[in-house]
Amino acid sequence: MAEQYHFQVNLGGMLDILSNHLYKSPDVFLRELLQNGVDAVTRRRREQPGWTGGRLTVALEPGRRLTFRDNGAGLDEAEIHRFLAVIGQSSKTELEDGRIPEDYIGRFGIGLLSCFMVSDSIVVHTRPAKGGPGHCWTGLPDGTYTLEPLTDCPAGTAVILTARSGAEGYFQREKIAELVRYYGLALPVPVFFAGETAQLNGVPEDFSAVSRSQLLAFGEWLYGETFLDAVPIQTKHLSGVAYVLPYATSPTMKTGHRIYLKQMLLTEQGDTLLPPWAFFLRCFLNTRGLRPTASREDFYEDEALFRARDEFAAAVGSYLTALRRSDPDRLRQIVDIHAQAIKAMAVWDDGLFRLFIDYLPFETSEGAMTGAALKDAGEAYYVATVPKFKQLRPIFMAQGRLLICTGYASDGELIAKLAADFSLPIEPLREEAMEGVLQQVTPEEEQALSGLLLAADDALSVFDCRSEARRFFPGELPALYAMSDDVQFLRQVQSARDLSDGIFSDALSSLLDSVETRPLATLYLNLNSPVIQRLSRVRDGALLRGAVRLLYVQALLAGGHPLQGEELRVMNQELLGLIERSAGSAQEEGVR
Amino acid sequence: MKKELFSGERINKAILALPEGKPRLDALQDAVAQADRAADPYWRLRFRADYICDAVYFDDEAKILPFCGEFFALLEEYPGVLGEPLEQLSCFLVAKRAAALCQVLPQIPMTVCEGFLERLAELTRRYGKGSRLYHNLACEFYLGGDLDRAAAHFEAFQKAKLDMQSKCRACEQSFMVRYALATGDWALAERSARPIFDGSMTCHDVPWDTYHTYIEAYLDRGEIKKADPLVRQLSRGGIRDVSDTEYMGTLLRFYGMQNRVGAALLQRYLPWPLSLWDRGRQFYFYQGAWVLCTAGPLDREVTFYLPRQFPLWREDGRYRWGDLADWFYGAAADIAGQFDRRNGGTVYRDTLARTERAAKERRNHGKKEI
């Protein structure tokens, strides 16, 4: 049988890891004190039904010492040994039906250690409210502790911290007040400075009962910002308010939510709880029934969290639905500023889609158009990339056809849904549709152009491009370059290979060599263009070749495609050739 | 007309305001072109590095190859222009992405793949960090054909210290699961997967990547019931864009093994692999699509609208399941062959053979749970 060994734990090192690496900032020591205090009060309320006197106080010797006191349940000697001396043991792990009681905040029994981030010792004076002697427990960061009897000790617990060198800033009145408001604003137990009557925390229990102006005033006080609107959130798992930011923002910007778990601040990041589109909101939310992670800085992703997220989406959705009836101007204002977030929301929610689609703007060949305008616009096509849209826009404009750009987030889904739900003749621009935009020429015209097309194919083969004759508007546009995504990628690969050397050049060459049939781009020559009409009559092969190559380069530039080395060389060479020809002709004229 | 001057800062700010994904990638491509036109070496490098960083998450990973090549060519031309530590950070980023590309592009010859890994190793030596990342990527690469070398790198990976160049902890953990399942070490896989399955380790790719790996492994063993909860999770959050094509393939395989026909899914997601250059992701999709297409009677016709670039495309949208199955199997086998030829092993063909065997056994058992 294999021998069994025990590994050893360096307690001092463990304490260092827990207190200095588990938490993101020393600030959390106050959160842990608040949490323990509230849980002690909660425990006393459970043990002594009818007792309602819970309060937390902070006494300060500025820059030196802090005494954090609760008048909760307190601990007896056995509990001190069990709960203050064993990491992972918490006085809150008495299970009810196999679960931690809902009104307890903490659960891991390691929170008190965070005090070592600001203090070299933790002194706890405690006496059980149910009766019994008081004790003084002194814990040190090396993992040792002492326990002495204490005669003069009120019921409850006092934690006494002495400022570590460098942590004096945490022992200042302003800092403590700020941290209490930050972490404990929503706590159900009042917090005071010792000997004072002004409460440091406290917010409404039910936000749906608070008027809009009061909510906005609260938001201004809390965040120092004037918000566009305030959406009260009151659901099974959530209670609070979602403020609509008065300026456009993006998903990557830090929004600065305040998300509490059972009234204690858990995180400023909404990523886990809030849907991705909530970036236009700044939320003050208290949560219930959700599980925190071990560091108590985020939530576990479980069914309750998914339900809470759905509840949030539903609450925002119903508020905005009601707003359409009660204050459409405000709704329009919100949409104007936050179209992007609302679009993201509308993709996933049919109700919101129907509510907002008329207001939402889309980029089209005729400028920005709302969903309502598109409903009346008749036939339209959409393209999924911005460069393609830019390339085709002038053609669609000249032909009086409508082209919608769906290259932006959510636009593709919304336009497709708009077309489907309202039976609108709006379709993706497929190759077949391009046939309508770029009209076929007649066989006779094709025949007349054959010389030009042959010369063009020959001149363009080096660029993996072929030519086709079409008629399209505007007539001033002699040629249109069109390429598939594959052609575009291979152009990039080729361009990068020209620039690179060594292994990258080899890798890019391998990729190019692996393509059995190179996809070709197309240069559409516009028979409506006087330039193309004139070129169709030219018989000088060299002139045709040069002209086609210049048309090709010009079409690339018009489409926003960067020129590659060979194309730049061709442009220079052909331009010089044309200048020489013109100069030669002028000279001959002069001689004559 | 007043000519607008190029301002990388202004463009960068505008890009950061865009949502992640396609809009930002399009904007970054445009920014690269603008910086090239302005011949601004700093932004030419910077926008390329940013594009490489983002594209891996939201687009066809293979498309970053030209950007990687251009990045190092430009860096050689303008050394020091990015300044430390951005240069160091970008070099590692681009080198690691390039090394990872070997796992998705079998066209890249073995010598070049090893050259990419050596470039990363050289950076590791130069800067005295990144060793864990190097062994991680080398192990993943050799898992495709040389399990002994993969094992050596895995051991070195475990011994190497974490540093700022290491992959994120969730990605590392997911890699350990992949390695364990690839080598048949289920105990290690379960240990490694625990913090992922309990939700304490997540990132953009995790847990989805782990679900995908586990589902494939369960399906290889015919354990449909065990795969089921992971499939539900994966389908709920893991199918986001074209970079999740292989996850969709895994779902198709699962539905196929349940004898569930998923014509709608196939119709909806087939454009993804068809648009990809990334052969690794295509492989899993085509493999899954093949299992799905063999779930019902092969001579039955189905009508749906597949993209035009699909080689069997028909205007009337009518296809025989058997024809589709043959095409998907052929495509998957072709990719498996490319990888195995390059890697000098049989890993991909073995994977396909396992899939084939599991599907066959499943069909023989009918709908009875194994």
What topology does this entry show?
The complex is a heterodimer of chains A (592) and B (370).
Chain A: H1 11-20, H2 28-47, E1 56-61, E2 65-70, H3 77-84, E3 119-127, E4 134-139, E5 145-150, E6 156-163, H4 173-184, E7 191-193, H5 212-223, E8 229-234, E9 238-244, E10 258-261, E11 264-267, E12 281-287, H6 303-326, H7 328-348, H8 350-356, E13 361-364, E14 367-370, H9 371-375, E15 380-383, H10 386-399, E16 402-405, H11 411-421, E17 426-428, H12 431-437, E18 439-440, H13 443-448, H14 450-460, E19 465-471, E20 479-482, H15 485-499, H16 502-513, E21 521-526, H17 530-535, H18 541-558, H19 565-591
Parallel strand pairs in A: 1-7, 10-12, 15-16, 15-17, 19-21
Antiparallel strand pairs in A: 1-2, 2-6, 3-4, 3-6, 4-5, 8-9, 9-12, 10-11, 13-14, 18-19, 20-21
Helix pairs in contact in A: 2-4, 6-7, 7-8, 14-18, 15-16, 18-19
Chain B: H1 8-16, H2 22-38, H3 41-58, H4 65-77, H5 86-101, H6 110-127, H7 131-142, H8 147-159, H9 169-182, H10 186-197, H11 208-220, H12 224-237, H13 245-257, H14 263-269, H15 271-275, H16 279-293, E1 301-303, E2 318-320, H17 321-343, H18 347-364
Antiparallel strand pairs in B: 1-2
Helix pairs in contact in B: 1-2, 2-3, 3-4, 3-5, 4-5, 5-6, 6-7, 7-8, 9-10, 9-11, 11-12, 11-13, 12-13, 13-16, 16-17, 17-18
Q: Could you list some keywords that capture this structure?
A:
heterodimer; A: 592 residues; alpha+beta; Heat Shock Protein 90; Ribosomal Protein S5, domain 2; Rossmann fold; 4 domains; seven-stranded mixed β-sheet; five-stranded mixed β-sheet; 42% helix; B: 370 residues; mainly alpha; 2 domains; two-stranded antiparallel ribbon; 18 helices; 2% strand; globular
